[in-house]
Design goal:
The chain is of the alpha+beta class. It has two domains: 11-125, no CATH class; 130-162. It has helices spanning 79-90, 95-109, 135-153, 167-188, and strands spanning 11-14, 19-22, 59-63, 121-125. It has a four-stranded antiparallel β-sheet with strand order 2-1-3-4, with helices on one face.
């Protein structure tokens, strides 16, 4: 059984392969020092980032360590391998039912599972639907933006959560866009 990592690795369901696995990437050469610690433990921890292509029907599941620290029917800790085994046994589950199904499976394996630790799961599924905002939601967003802009005029008011009009902020947004336009025009000629 593998050792439990500081942060549990997310799981991914590839719809085209109908298979659960860990979400991972090729390991780069790592710098020395703490990495991927739970948030708030140390302010100096670095966190791995990478891009991944998802296809329609793919699911990504993130979870807290309560799942992998749960015990199997024989009293042994599940660990990541045990959780992956459960996910593979479940196979394709409708995303709205996935969290309840997984938590039910783990709870059924040992009476005290999931009772002594915080339990969080999040399921993300690619569905290719465009977001739809009602007229009410759009008008509400416009109203909130307008109020923030009006408050920005009052020097005593709380500052809105928008960047200050500063050359570094403006240049950081405009210069890359201008460079991209220049390269596009250069290719055409």
């Amino acid at each position: 059984m593998s050792a439990t990592p500081a942060i549990p690795r997310p799981l991914i369901y590839r719809a085209s392969q109908r298979q659960w696995d860990f979400l991972y990437h090729e390991e780069p050469v790592r710098a020395a020092g703490p990495r991927n610690l739970p948030l708030g433990i140390l302010g100096i921890s670095d966190y791995d980032r990478f891009d991944i292509e998802l296809e329609i029907g793919d699911c990504v599941v993130t979870y807290t360590d309560a799942l992998i620290e749960s015990q199997d029917a024989d009293g042994q800790m599940l660990g990541e391998d045990g959780l992956l085994r459960i996910m593979r046994l479940l196979g394709e589950v409708d995303p709205p039912e996935l969290i309840g199904t997984v938590l039910g499976e783990i709870a059924d394996r040992y009476p005290e599972n999931l009772s002594g630790d915080d339990v969080t799961m999040m399921v993300l599924r690619v569905n290719q639907r465009r977001p739809h905002y009602s007229l009410r939601e759009r008008l509400g967003a416009l109203l909130r933006l307008s109020v923030s802009v009006i408050r920005a005029i009052d020097p005593r008011a709380e500052r809105p959560p928008i960047p200050d009009f500063h050359p570094a902020n403006v240049g950081g947004a405009i210069i890359p866009a201008l460079a991209q336009l220049w390269r596009a025009n250069k290719r055409r000629t």
